[in-house]
Structures are given as C-alpha cells and as structure tokens.
Amino acid sequence: MNMTHYMELLATGQPWNLILFMAIPVILAETVAITELGVLFTRRTDGTLRAVNKFASVTVGLYFTVVFVYLLFQVVIPLTAGGGWRGWVDVAAVSFYLLGIVPLLGLALLDMGLLQKGRPEAQRLKIHAYFVGIFLVVTHLAMIFGMLDPYLFSTVPVHMSHPM
Which residue ranges traverse the bilayer (predicted)? Predict the structure, then answer.
C-alpha cells in the first residue's frame, strides 16, 4: 500500500518525526481540550485549570507555527514545484494537517491577549472553545485522509510517486 506524505512524514525518522510532528502538538492540544471542558463547566478563569489551559494553548500555538513554517518550506513548496503529490487525497491529508495552524495560532493569540482584546471573558471563552472544536475537526480529517492510500481515488499512476 502507498502512503500519503502525511503518514510518510510520521513513519520516517522513528521516533523523532512522530514525536515532533504528532506527539508534542497532539498532547498539548488534547491538554487544551480536556482543561477547556473543566474551565467551561466551572466558569472559573482564575484557577490552576485555566492556567494549565492557557499555558498549553500558547505553547501549542507557537510550537505549531514553527512546524507549519518548516513543513511549508521543506515539504509543501518542493512537492508542489516538483509535481510530487500523490493525488488529491495526499494533498487533502497534508492540507488538513497544516490547517491546524488556524485554530492553534488563534488559541495562542487569544491567550496572549492579542486577539479579542477588550472583549468580555464569556465571549473570549466562547471563541476559545470554537478554536478547540475547529482543531479537533481538521486534525481528524488529516488523520482520516492520511490513512488512505493516496491513489485510491486518483488517476495518478502509482509509479509517479516520489519519496518525501
């Protein structure tokens, strides 16, 4: 079976690529999601739970910004310029993964006070929860497309695949 570039990235350089591109961002984002539930349930924005939530939000947003820039210049642009994509499923998997920058950077900017400044705390919590939800959707779509054979729905011949 052929792999998408998304899965190939995670599978090569074991265990480092898996740790850098999946484990660190997912552990931090899941920490945000879990603590988010506690914050929303209690409406306490001054406790330890919110402090952990805020730390994880800022950290994952800044960390994923570095990952995004790295992958954009080291993978996406070269693959696009060289015609190395393995069909639309491959593009979708990588694109959904990289779309994680929108909610993750949004969380960081929100918690650093650079986004929605001056808004009531309830409004900021609502937007924070939306960003968490958006992240969950795009990452799950990346995983679903990433696990497919990239040529399953494509007319691109298999022999045209290029290693990452």
Answer: 20-43, 55-76, 96-115, 127-148
Listing DSSP states for 79-115 in one string gives HHHHT---SHHHHHHHHHHHTTHHHHHHHHHHHTT-S
Give the domain extent around 146.
Answer: 5-156
Considering its fold, how many domains does the chain have in total?
1
Specify the pTM.
0.91
pLDDT digits (tens, 9 = 90+) for 60-105: 999 999 999 999 999 999 999 999 999 999 999 999 999 999 999 9
Contacts by 124-128, CB closer than 8 A, 24 or more apart: 125/39, 125/40, 125/43, 125/45, 128/36, 128/57
pLDDT in tens, 17-68: 999 999 999 999 999 999 999 999 998 989 999 999 999 999 999 999 999 9
Any domain includes 98: yes
In the predicted structure, residue 154 carries a pLDDT above the cut 80: no
Q: Is 161 within a domain? A: no
